[in-house]
Amino acid sequence: MSKTKIILASILKPVDDSRTYEKIGYSLSQTKKYEVNIIGFQSKNINHVVPGINLYPAFNFNRLSIRRVFAPLICLRYYIKLAPDLIIFNTHELILASILYKLIFGAKICYDVRENYFRNIKYGPGFSKFFRPVLAAYVRGIEYLSRPFINHYFVAEKNYEKEFTFTLKKSSVIQNKFHNIYDTKSARSREFNKLLFTGTLAETTGVFEAIQLAISLNEINPKISLKIVGRAAQKSTANRILKYAYQYPWISLIGGGNLVNHSQIIDAISEADLGLIGYPKNKSTDGAIPTKIYEYLSLQLPIILQHNILWEKICATYNASLNIDFKSVDHADLWEQIQTHDFYTTLPGPEVEWASEAKKLLTSIEKI
């Protein structure tokens, strides 16, 4: 019996991206019903090869490169070559190419909406202020106009079902919960000297709030260090972080302008004492749950958390976090609380892990 051929397609995400490869791709491959093919950005070192998944690292360019304009056409060539029965793409840039393939060859297509791209563009610092509203309007327009052609939507956040009317009655919420395919175990101390910031490095994700907090805590306890692991899409952001690392030798950076394997992030979480999550207020991240919350919870990393009702509610179940305002906290008092707080009085269970989401994903794909 031949397997159903599926393509998971992206442009900027690496082929071994955690959601596409470790979660969706892995879950599909384990059923033995599907041939899984992932098209995406080149990745330097793939540390964990999943049998049954074929990787096609098709892209390698700067974020604002002219080569990015032609990426959908390159992806379309892969579609034609691989002849999939189902395409799951996770960027608005692949909407037209995926619809074109569907119209000609009859495949089903799904849009994995991982972010509110309209808000990211309009309220984020990635583009000039003049260009932001124009590009944001184009993206939202094409998302609405393409609705009749999309068979199904997977949305990464519960609140997206309210934010996006274009996904109405055609969507499944598949959250970015943690899937530890590396079987990493935690081995951290109770000294709370090793601080950690992981994930996307940008003003909107709070990396500079984390740095300033670490500097203030280091003045109280010189043993404190900060490890930053992630990629900055903007070179200016990476350079700004590097300046801090040069000025403060106890601040280290892994990634910066380069992609980071997810396994490096998981290793860093396992070795850290405290995770810092300090997103500043921004409409581009309103209502979103950072993936690292599930990663930190699953690996029982104590968290210093920016006040956010949604995030605090998740962490409160396990007493996993100290909740503060990064911009106005009393650092001496915070250090006192860190040393005396009893973290993880209740241990997280399957509810923070990928298995429950995988079941929903597989059920949806069977119906499609």
Kindly describe this structure:
The chain has 368 residues and is an alpha/beta fold. It has two domains: 4-177 and 354-367, Glycogen Phosphorylase B (Rossmann fold), CATH 3.40.50; 194-352, Rossmann fold, CATH 3.40.50. It is built from 13 helices and 13 strands. The strands form two sheets. The protein has a seven-stranded parallel beta sheet with strand order 3-2-1-4-5-6-7, with helices on both faces. The protein has a six-stranded parallel beta sheet with strand order 10-9-8-11-12-13, sandwiched between helices.
Q: Can you give the mean pLDDT?
A: 92
The proportion of residues in beta strands is: 15-25%
| Secondary structure tally, helices | 13
Q: CATH fold name of the largest domain, please?
A: Rossmann fold
The shape is globular
CATH class of the largest domain, named: Alpha Beta
* Low-confidence spans: none
Count of extended strands = 13
Percent in helix: 25-40%
The domain tally reads: 2
Instruction: State the major sheet.
Output: 7 strands, parallel
- Spatial arrangement of strands, main beta sheet: 3-2-1-4-5-6-7
Rg from alpha-carbon coordinates? 21 Å
CATH superfamily of the largest domain: Glycogen Phosphorylase B
| Class inferred from helices and paired strands | alpha/beta
At CATH level 2, the architecture of the largest domain is 3-Layer(aba) Sandwich
> Separation of termini?
19 Å
- H/E element string? EHEEHEHEHHEHEEHEHEHEHEHEHH
